[in-house]
């Protein structure tokens, strides 16, 4: 049994991870700014200062984790109203991450599992699934900040001996999902015709319960130390396939119009949604073979089970 501190524990992945760790008898502390992790047997620590300022001084005397899983982040948003988005992302995702890592190590942590993003590598796959060895080329402030945080942690690990594990998930979905995935379910629920019938490009994704299970392996397995892993479900889907499957589980008709992807991208450029259309029409497949080979990890849930659980949650809340 390990003692694990989870930051961002009230978020989509954080709640799933806390529950997974608790089920396997780990001693879990959930670090949140507000709200709660809503998991029985999990201790909660509230620290409201932005970007983890003052975390070292506020650290409870009786908290000595073996490992910290750092999920808290300033996340990617479609319309960022920050005066300087890159600086805002850097403050939270780089400086805040280093505060957590240094404070945790000072209190005895031997390992940090940092949940980065495939956006730290690329927005599209260029024709081949993205492996961990691909030269990173992030394009937006979120991806740039995640990549900078990875590099800062590797340096910290080399300087101090702290074990660093970086995990890069693609699109994460599951009960409680928001952003574009939720918007797609909203459209299906209302019966809105969607112009993705001709979009065949495949994109990797990962169900929250699969990601939580992979993170638990990264916490406990000595073979994960000082390694970067890509984590996905076992099946990649096109947007059209995903919509059809979600519609089935929502018991709603799926009205897909066969609009050529090039026309969708042109429309996106004219309406200020170029980045969103590129994500929806371009391939972003991720190679997760390293975590399979190194840790023997396989996703415990199929894509279909994840989509069904997500749709069931949606139906229960609408």
TrEMBL record:
Residues of the NAD-dependent epimerase/dehydratase domain: 4-221
Protein origin, superkingdom: Bacteria
Name of the protein: NAD-dependent epimerase/dehydratase family protein
